[in-house]
Amino acid sequence: MSWILLFVAGLLEVVWAFSMKQSQGFTRLWPSVLTLVAMIASFGLLAAAMRVLPLGTAYAVWTGIGAVGAFVAGILFLGEAASPARLLAAGLILSGIVLMKVATP
Which is one Pfam family of this protein (predicted)? Predict the structure, then answer.
């Protein structure tokens, strides 16, 4: 169950990062509200997952999901570049997430 909570927390990290971009520096109300709500929910789920999972694993997986998810959202919705080097970097982060999951008892 803690892995599911951590995964959802990571997805919410993508939501708040994307909505923060859409808030244009917190100058637009609804994207700003969504950013804050998603942040609070993401941190809450991360904290719940950390009751069971080791700190290093939970934090690395959470930030990794957020980083790769925000990278993909930027490409799909904001027209950001998908250069080979950026794709390789995202793949390495994803590999690290998988290795953290496999290496955690």
Answer: Multi_Drug_Res
Q: Report, as an integer, the average pLDDT of 62-91.
A: 97
| CA-wise closest residue to 38 among 19, 56, 55 | 19
| Secondary structure in 3-state letters for 16-30 | HHHHHHHCCCCCCHH
* Amino acid sitting at position 58: A
Distance between CA atoms of residues 105 and 99, nearest Å: 12
| Sign, Cα dihedral of 51, 55, 57, 63 | positive
Tokens found for residue 8: 């959802």
**Amino acid letter, residue 97:** I
What confidence tens digit (pLDDT) does each residue in 46-58 have?
999 999 999 999 9
Provide the pLDDT confidence category of residue 73 given band limits of 50, 70 and 90: very high
Domain ranges for the chain: 2-103
Which tokens sit at 53?
């999972």
